[in-house]
Amino acid sequence: FDTVGATTPNMVYGEATAVGDAPAAAAGLKEGAVNFNGSYYSQPAYDSIQLGTSDFTIECWFNSTDNDGYMFFKGSHSANTAAGTTGHWIGLERHSSGSLNFAIDDDVNKSQVSLTNANSYFDGKWHHVACVRNYEEKTLTLYLDGKNVAQTTGVKTGALADNNEPLLLGCSDETTRPYEGLMDEFIIHPVAMTDDEVMQAYQALAASSIQEVMATETDALYTVVDAMSGIMMRRASGHDAAGITNGLPQGIYVLVIEKSNSFETYKFVKR
Description:
Elements: E1 7-9, E2 15-19, E3 24-27, E4 32-37, E5 40-43, E6 56-63, E7 69-75, E8 79-80, E9 85-86, E10 88-94, E11 100-106, E12 110-115, E13 126-134, E14 139-144, E15 147-152, E16 167-169, E17 180-189, H1 195-206, H2 210-215, E18 221-226, E19 232-237, E20 251-258, E21 263-270
Antiparallel strand pairs: 1-2, 2-5, 3-4, 4-17, 5-16, 6-13, 6-17, 7-10, 7-16, 8-9, 10-11, 11-12, 13-14, 14-15, 18-19, 18-20, 20-21
């Protein structure tokens, strides 16, 4: 979403067009982001997003306090031959109950994976979400900030019919429930990413929120390592680590956070 307006380019195929007023541009994790506030984008269908029985992963970053709306959606909730709708769909829904739901539907069997209480992720800060379908293993998995937070097994949903229905960003075909908030780095992968791969995708950009991570881990030990040479650049603990990334030269680094019973790593780019 580095270019936002009446249209926004798709790096794979064509461009998405704003429905309603053009969404606003905003600062993102990686250059620009889009700020949805009642309007949304519609991307015409193309071969790579005709998902059928394929494995897939859909990921993006979001920053929102919204409590009801679809973040993305492809297809239609009901079949209508005259209208050209199939009743086949995929979508990520923030529900007024507090949940976050990733669902797929082949117009016979709907399958869903949900985090019952997702309120802590809708706090006006950047978070990463990944939705994974593994067709052979019959699973749907929901990841937030790199972690597997919910999984549904024994998924009965079959092929998601190839159709010309658009991909909607910031809404569904239920246009009265738009998503309100920021979105960045929306990507559809033609594979079912593993736990490790999702964590790596999260960590690749999570460093833009490094200060937020550090603020929540005030009793930990922090080490910054040059990712190219392996040289330890800095080390600090607790509140003394507040400015540990300040003034680093341009480059790629790894931040290691050691806690009493675990540790986390975050790769980040200093520009």
